[in-house]
Amino acid sequence: MFAKVVTVSVAGLLLAGSFVAPSADAAVKISNGVACAKSGATTKVKTTTYKCTKNPTVKNAKLTWVSKDCLNADATWIKSNKDYQDLAKQMPTTLADLDQKILDEIANVAVQNAKADALDLQVKAMTDTVTVLTASREKLIADSANAIKNKPAITTYAQAITTYKKTIASLTSSAALYRKTGKSVETMKKTRDYAATQLDQAKAGVGQSLTMRSMICDKGL
Fold it and tell me: What are phi and psi of 90, to 5 degrees?
């Protein structure tokens, strides 16, 4: 009788144990890097959503749970790295083109400055002429005794002086425009520096996105 009671009791314990023992899947804590079986399956743990997939940034990746935040960080890193690689390939050609344009512009500036210098000489000569004409006109004006006789000459001098002054103003403006081209060289140099800086910034962006990805995709999160 005692043996039957023991047997029944043991069987009861075993039966009860079959109801309370957790399954292997239930015991697994879902987090980044934990193996999973069904590709594309999703689940939510508290506020974090996980997807069963192969992490695109892991070599020879297997199906694991990956948080949506991790997948987003992966996508950001992949894009920033691609953008940097594309920019790095283009940069040598871009900088070479800018360097050539700068050299061409420097040569052009030299030509334009030479033109401006030539105009300056003309302006100086005309200015000296205006000085002489003005002195002659004032001398005639001062000769009041011959005012009527000198009037036509005074008018001619005045017209000549006006014409010279207009020409001087035009030549001075042209010389200024010729010299203005020199500023374009500095602008082009700044453009080149900016292009080179873009590559450095893109490289830094890759490092930052990789650091962020490593933090968010850390196993156990």
Answer: -80, -25
Give strand pairing partners of 35: 64
Alpha carbon 174 to its chain centroid, in Å, reads: 36
Asked if residue 177 is part of any domain, the answer here is yes
Name the nearest CA neighbour of 112 among 176, 169, 173: 176
Q: Is 202 helix (H, G, I), strand (E, B) or coil?
A: helix
Q: What is the per-residue pLDDT across 4-30, written as a single tens digit (0 to 9) for each?
A: 444 444 444 343 443 333 434 445 789
Residue 87 lies in a domain: yes
187 lies in some domain: yes
Q: Tell me how far apart the alpha carbons of residues 177 and 171 are, in angstroms, rounded to a whole number.
A: 10
Q: Residue 199 domain-assigned?
A: yes
Strands 48-54 and 63-67: antiparallel
Write out the residue range of the structural domain in which residue 158 sits: 73-216
Kindly report the CATH number assigned to the domain that includes residue 174: 1.10.287
Section 168-196 average pLDDT: 88
- The Cα 22–Cα 1 span in angstroms is 34
The mean per-residue pLDDT over the stretch 83-110 comes to 92
